[in-house]
Design goal:
The complex is a heterodimer of chains A (177) and B (185).
Chain A lengths: L15 H86 L5 E7 L3 E8 L2 H15 L2 E8 L5 E8 L2 H10 L1
Antiparallel strand pairs in A: 1-2, 2-4, 3-4
Chain B lengths: L6 H66 L1 H8 L4 H8 L5 E4 L3 E6 L2 E12 L2 H12 L4 E13 L2 E12 L15
Antiparallel strand pairs in B: 1-3, 2-3, 3-5, 4-5
The chains are: A alpha+beta (177), B alpha+beta (185).
Chain lengths: 177, 185
């Protein structure tokens, strides 16, 4: 006995309504999950890049410190070299001045240039020639000047001239330098 | 009034509620905190990039200064690094002297952190001009050398015998980091 003229349909829970809801939520969840994973990935890459930058910054800091040290060392070398070069030039000028100071009529046999003085040995035709031509300029340079004479064989005079700059003054000059 | 709700409708409603609850929980518990974290990390990265760029700029500037200093003072730097060679010095300066004799090199007290060696020199010159040329040559030489007091000149016939002390300055291997070891001593 039949109650209906049509064939019974198979009953399923996936009706068009359910399918619509499932599709809607599936798309929503997929979008949420992809956003979440995108954020996770970006967080990871940001962190990785930041760590890399911090590491590189430390390397740069070390390099900068090293270069600063090298720069200050080169500057120290330059300062010392300039000081030495200047000393050499001052020395050259001192010797030039010394030899320019001695007149032709006086002959030097020995000269000792000290840090704060000058000792000269030589021969002069007379005391007057020495006093006018050498003693006067020496006195203008040195604060203490002593000369002793003794006769040379040919009628000329041997002399020993010892000249010093006052220590206090030379120290002052040094400190001014 | 009687509300007729079929089982199927209840099923749809429940399903919708469960999915909605999942979406809400997921959003509030995971997605939004992660988004905030993302913004914080992006800000930190920007800050780190800015700082890195500043350091890089300063690094490049310092490097340029260093290279500039090195190129301008190459001779001085090399002179401080080069160990003093008595034979080479005599060979270079023999032209200014009729004879040149250098005594043994002795280590003196360090000056400004640099090693100092003292060298006693005796020489014969025909004219003071030779000595001036020698002093000029010292400043252009292979080493940092300063002629020092006392300087003695003694007439010996037609020649002048000069004797003086020279100070040779070198990098101090103990103190100066960029110093090279001088093995020629």
């Amino acid at each position: 006995m039949k109650y209906s003229y049509i064939k019974p349909r198979k009953k399923t829970p996936f009706t068009p309504d359910v399918m619509l809801i499932v599709i809607f939520f599936s798309i929503t969840i997929i979008m949420l999950l992809s956003t979440y994973f995108f954020l996770l990935f970006k967080d990871y890459s940001f962190e990785k890049e930041r760590t890399k930058l911090l590491g590189e910054r430390v390397v740069l800091e070390k390099n900068i410190a090293k270069m600063d040290k090298q720069i200050s060392f080169i500057k120290e070398q330059k300062v010392l070299a300039q000081r030495v070069f200047t000393q050499n030039m001052v020395l050259k000028d001192s010797i030039t001045n010394l030899f320019d100071l001695v007149p032709e009529r006086i002959t030097l046999s020995r000269a000792e240039l000290l840090k704060n003085g000058l000792i000269l040995y030589g021969v002069t035709p007379s005391k007057d020639v020495y006093n006018f031509m050498l003693q006067a300029p020496l006195r203008s340079i040195f604060q203490k000047s002593y000369t002793s004479f003794y006769p040379a064989g040919n009628g000329w005079l041997n002399f020993v001239s010892t000249n010093y700059i006052d220590n206090d003054e030379s120290e002052e000059l040094d400190s001014e330098d | 009034m009687k509300i007729n709700i079929s089982r199927h409708q209840i099923y749809i409603l429940l399903l919708t509620l469960v999915l909605l609850l999942f979406v809400l929980l997921f959003s509030f518990l995971l997605l939004i905190p992660e988004g905030q974290d993302y913004r914080v990390k992006r800000k930190e990265l920007r800050k780190a990039t800015l700082e890195y760029n500043k350091y890089k700029e300063f690094h490049d500037k310092t490097l340029t200064t260093l290279k500039d200093l090195q190129s301008k003072n190459r001779n001085i730097i090399t002179a401080f690094e080069r160990p003093f060679s008595k034979e080479r010095f005599e060979k270079q300066n023999r032209v200014n002297f009729s004879s040149l004799n250098i005594s043994r090199i002795q280590r003196a007290k360090d000056e400004d952190g640099f090693a100092v060696y003292e060298v006693n020199t005796t020489s014969h010159i025909s004219s003071p001009v030779n000595f001036y040329d020698f002093l000029d040559g010292l400043n252009k030489g292979d080493w940092i050398i300063g002629a020092n007091f006392p300087i003695k000149f003694v007439r010996e016939g037609e020649m002048i015998r000069s004797s003086f002390t020279m100070k040779v300055y070198e990098n101090n291997a103990d103190k100066n980091s960029t110093a090279s070891a001088s093995s020629a001593k």
